[in-house]
Amino acid sequence: MSGQIVTRFAPSPTGFLHIGGARTALFNWLFARGNGGRFLLRIEDTDRARSTPEATQAILDGMDWLGLEHDGEVVSQAAGAERHAEVAHELLEKGAAFKCFSTQEEIEAYREKARAEGRSTMFVSPWREADPSSHPDAPYVIRLKTPLEGETIIRDQVQGDVRIGNDQLDDMVLLRSDGTPVYMLAVVVDDHDMGVTHVIRGDDHLNNAARQMGIYSAMGWDLPVYAHIPLIHGPDGKKLSKRHGALGVDEYQKMGYPAAGMRNYLARLGWSHGDDEFFTDAQAQAWFGLDGIGKSPARFDFKKLENLCGQHIAALADAALLKELDDFLDATGQLPFTETQRDGMSRAMYCLKDRAKLLPDLLEKGHFILSERPLDVDEKAQKALDPVSRRILSELTPHLQSASWSRDDLEAQLGAFAEAQGTKFGKLAAPLRAALAGRAVTPSVFDMMLVLGRDETIARLAEAAEES
């Protein structure tokens, strides 16, 4: 196969974008981007009863948050029904498909008899080789003629060669009696028409590939390269489900995982590049290959996810982190930053990143920036503001009026003041934290003073020094 690589992600809009789907999208995106190809998005909305606009939007939002931008317009599978039916009729004309007039009752009776006789219940239609002149004037489905002998070999980039005897494959329905195409036909026609060269999807579709290959073969179309990736399991080794925690990517966003960390972790979930754990998008795109995908199911590990997210928070540029925080506030229905808060968070990011694993950690550490006077002092911090501490804070204020407000000068001023009080700076730290943030656990006192600036720092110290 030559020419440009084209991959696709084709979710069904019957719910949120779950983690397994997000990883499938990511693998397709990485493979296309790393090879200068195109990454397409198709919404498989043929199940009209279960497909909803809300679910489609949830998928688009999830991909947008993960930064998996697709090329071209979103394709609706349902919109191509006429084209899908056209292919079914073309197969009929070629003799590669046939009209089957068997009713549901007849098919069920056939299966009942087969069960009673201990034979395969796979339906064999009596209409496969029937002369058209014997066709009744009755509803019919169009079925694909599957070869009766030999085998179908799926040459899979992950699973290796998978062989299925053709006697195990039924003459599948292509067009229902009401003229609507089935999903299996629609997928093949869409992939062909969209120029998809590589089908990278979950291994729960592996058996579908053997049946879909029959349509490619009958139409004389080139087969795509198949790569069926193992499903994701929970920490207990069982298929990932609701009992393991969050499932939709929207939930992970609301929990505060940064998108960059999520991409990194999902890429490592079933694919590896040596011993590399932490990597950037550019590295992932350059390294990603189908040969790095493992055959065994990957286990979802929240601790590893958090650890990687912490590394990405530390490595992200301040502006990118602020954008992540903006999106997090929006996703969780919180008020956006004011201009003052945004400026403060931007200037403080260097000291907020330290040991933060999730986005709420940044907000918690940045509490001193996001709060306004009069501060709401929590119980633990309140204990540090006893009468002696308040007196010391009131005496400290004049010393800070003349400080040059550099870290070195502030450290020198506070060190000298503590010595003059006959104590160590460590003893001053607790009341200073309480005064500046209203909390007992905060970034360093000096970082808070530098971010707040001289006027706000002195105003907070003066307020805390007053009797409450």
Automatic annotation (TrEMBL):
Residues reported in the UniProt entry to bind ATP: 242
Ranges for the Glutamyl/glutaminyl-tRNA synthetase class Ib catalytic domain? 4-306
Q: Where in the cell is it found?
A: Cytoplasm
Quote one Gene Ontology molecular function term.
glutamate-tRNA ligase activity
Q: What does this protein do?
A: Catalyzes the attachment of glutamate to tRNA(Glu) in a two-step reaction: glutamate is first activated by ATP to form Glu-AMP and then transferred to the acceptor end of tRNA(Glu).
Which NCBIfam families does the record match to this protein? Answer: gltX_bact
What protein name does the entry list? Glutamate--tRNA ligase
Query: What is the protein's species of origin?
Result: Allosediminivita pacifica
